[in-house]
Amino acid sequence: MAAFLFAVITLIWGSTWLAIKVGLVGVPPFLGAGLRFLISALIVGAMLLVRRKSLRLTRGDRICVLSLGIPVFWINYGAVYWAEQYISSGLTAVLFATMPLMTALLSRFWARSEELSGRKIAGILIGVAGTVLLFWPDQRLGLQQVLGMAATLVAAACACFNLVTMKQYGGQSDRDVLNFLGMGLGATLLLLTSAVVEPWTVEWTTSNVLAMLYLAVFGSVIAFSAYYALIKLVDATIVSLSTLIIPIVALILGRVFLGETAGPTAVAGIAIILGGVAVAMLPVSQTPAGRA
User: How far apart are CA 214 and CA 221, in angstroms?
Assistant: First the structure.
């Protein structure tokens, strides 16, 4: 089950970088993100209504809702949408791949919920190195590109903060309730932000409408349900390693839909990423003496 959930997360979120880029054509970033999560919240709310699920929250649930609504659905996604105006979806995915290292450090030194083994840290560093090699920028960056890169690093930090928080407080929570309330809070904050800083000048097209619906249903409702189910099964650091596979999916989709090619450097980056994930995730075989 854990392997299946891991595959769902990486395949869907690997495609969302491209979908965000398509959805931004004609739609301001905070408005686009806000509408996405408003649609997602309505879908999850309908599911809860059918289930007649109570929205009564424990203290841990309230912490998780705030951790979802503010750091993730507001700051994280607002930063990613804003950044993709100025940097490529591939570079955004690269910078977001620093999340596992941040997660490992937070889990060890803040939550104190996981051991920072040499094998974990080695696998994460190898994977990050391969991801950087995969999408290393080959041109000088202007101020807007630098700010976009910085915004993506902020987004990654917010995502790993939520991951560790959910692992610590959300073990017994109903993930659909948390998603409904967190998405609703995030959508409200994003739309308020848009109303303050963005002109609501929108040019709707078939492409950006379909991209928004895909992001709302698959990228939010389905992927987040799988994501938080996986958190309950494995370590937070292992869950965050999905961000190292996502750029590979983005590369394949770029080749299929945009005609992008992968040169020798990209192939080397893919190999290094997979090697890093293998180092961090594959179980170590032990001798009877070692187990003793």
Answer: 10
* Token pair listed for 204: 């709707």
The answer to whether the beta carbons of residues 13 and 219 sit under 8 Å apart is yes
pLDDT tens digits along 145-198: 778 888 988 998 998 888 888 878 877 788 889 989 999 999 999 999 999 999
Q: Are 182 and 221 in contact (CB under 8 A)?
A: no
* Contact residues for 12 (Cβ-Cβ < 8 A; gap 6+): 218, 219, 222, 223, 226
Alpha helices in 89-171 (DSSP H): 89-96, 99-109, 118-134, 143-169
Q: How far apart are CA 28 and CA 37, in angstroms?
A: 15
CA 125 to chain centre: 19
Q: In 10 A of CB 32, how many CB atoms? A: 24
Amino acid at residue number 239: V
Q: How confident is the model over 79-89, as pLDDT tens digits?
A: 999 999 988 78
Q: How far is CA 255 from the centre of its chain?
A: 22
Cα 21 vs. chain centroid, distance in angstroms? Answer: 15
The predicted pLDDT at position 289 comes to 40
Q: What's the CA gap between 215 and 225, in Å, rounded?
A: 14
CA atoms within 13 A on the CB side of 93: 32
Phi, psi of 8, deg, nearest 5: -60, -45
Q: First and final CA of the chain: distance in angstroms?
A: 29
Cα separation values, 102 from 173, 204, 226, 227, 261, Å:
24, 38, 22, 18, 31
